[in-house]
Design brief:
The chain is an all-alpha fold. It is 72% helix and 0% strand. The protein has one domain (2-265). The protein has helices spanning 2-16, 19-46, 56-68, 79-87, 90-95, 100-133, 147-178, 182-195, 207-215, 223-230, 237-265. The chain is globular.
């Protein structure tokens, strides 16, 4: 376990070095969040009789939480894996006396969490208490509906981070297989943004698509935790939502490990 913990800590420290990137990302998420909130306000105010699954305040809180956790989305492979696949340095990982899946997973989780947590804390402070102090309480990040909801959301966010890191592992394996991160990143970005609820909250999609959207793995990254935070009804309740996350985590790990073993057995390395 010491090797995997070291990989996690090392990758986390690398991510924390780029403070300018955190600040730039924070400004970008605040900008896009504000634009999205204005769009929601316009739609809800012009259709006050519409029976939307989310109230305007819930939609705004959903947006702030999504924006704060944007870097938790699996939008590509681990950068170091992409570089190693391109240059041929991936052989060093193959020669390490560790479980390669756990090694890459530790780094992938640290890469996601290390980038997401600082930005999430800063954005939550700005969109929450600071916005309320400035007289923008109606547009601010609302607190969880209850202590129970807060605890469930916290557990669910933890599972969501693990699911996201596991999906990044799939992009890592694809990168190792193709010897380039371009294909994995091209697939990862649209899938993550669309299916996680970043583009539009999943509860606002048409009713016929709700079950399919809830049962796909990207919903477990941020959509399910945010629904628990807001107290929005989920078919089957909070327990079912947590089970969906656990099942996807197990399935992605099981098949991902099998795919990695097959990829490593057939891997041909060329240095750039």
């Amino acid at each position: 376990m010491r090797a995997y913990l070291s990989a996690f800590v090392l990758q986390g420290r690398i991510g924390l070095r780029y403070r300018i990137a955190v600040a730039a990302g924070l400004v970008a998420q605040l900008w896009f969040g504000a634009i999205t909130l204005m769009a929601y306000a316009s739609v809800y105010h012009h259709a006050p009789d519409a029976h939307a699954p989310l109230t305007l305040r819930q939609a705004m809180t959903y947006t702030w939480l999504q924006q704060s956790l944007f870097r938790l989305l699996p939008i590509g492979c681990l950068p170091s894996v992409g570089d190693a696949a391109r240059t041929g340095a991936i052989v060093y990982d193959l020669l390490r006396p560790v479980d390669m899946w756990a090694w890459w997973l530790s780094s992938s989780l640290a890469w996601l969490v290390g980038a997401a947590v600082p930005r999430a804390i800063l954005l939550a402070a700005i969109a929450g208490p600071l916005a309320a102090l400035l007289g923008l309480e109606a547009w601010s990040l609302a607190p969880p509906v209850s202590m129970t909801a807060a605890i469930l959301a916290l557990v669910s966010f933890g599972l969501g981070a693990l699911i996201s890191a596991t999906i990044v592992m799939w992009w890592n394996v694809l990168t190792a297989r193709t010897l380039s991160p371009l294909g994995a990143n091209a697939i990862a970005v649209p899938l993550s943004v669309l299916l996680s609820g970043m583009l539009l909250p999943l509860p606002l999609y048409p009713p016929w698509a709700q079950t399919l959207l809830l049962l796909q793995p990207f919903a477990g990254i941020t959509d399910i935790p945010i629904r628990l935070y807001l107290g929005v009804a989920i078919p089957g309740g909070a327990g079912t939502a947590i089970v969906i996350q656990i099942v996807w985590l197990a399935v992605l790990t099981l098949f991902g490990r099998a795919w990695m073993r097959r990829t490593v057995d057939r891997l041909e390395v060329q240095g750039a």
